[in-house]
Amino acid sequence: MNNQAGLTGAYMAEKIKLLVAGLLVVAGIAGFYFLAGSPTVVRVLSVLAGVALAAVVVWFTGTGRAFYGFGRESVDEARKVVWPSRKETLQMTGVVMLFVVVMAIFLWLVDAGLLWLVKLLMGRGE
User: Model-level pTM greater than 0.90?
Assistant: First the structure.
């Protein structure tokens, strides 16, 4: 029973931290509009400060650490990708362009044929 209360408390604490982080972002954006008479640099720094403080708060949550881990794993996976060479990229682009032209001609012929057939069936054929 006591363990359940501890889990609920930890869950609630994390939700409160995420709420505080969201409020910090909103405060930064509100500061941007509140400081309308100030130089643009000050207004932008207001937003960046709100986002930076929110990132610090999120870092201390389980969700934030999981998101950071996901980002690191994504970068690692992107490094494993074998990217095509310039020659391969140009060849595949050419194949795609050729396919698009051939498909456009085919669809145009089908459309023209169906139009002719409908005109013929309606008695308006030439």
Answer: no
**57 CB-contact burial (10 Å; exposed 0-12 / middle 13-18 / buried 19+):** buried
Give the closest residue to 54 by CA, choosing from 22, 31, 27: 22
- Parse the chain into domains and list their residue ranges: 1-81, 84-126
* Cα gap 19→77, rounded to integer Å: 31
Distance in angstroms (rounded) separating the CA atoms of residues 117 and 121: 6
Q: How far is CA 124 from the centre of its chain?
A: 52
Distance CA 63, CA 87 (A): 43
Q: Which residues of the chain register pLDDT less than 50?
A: 1
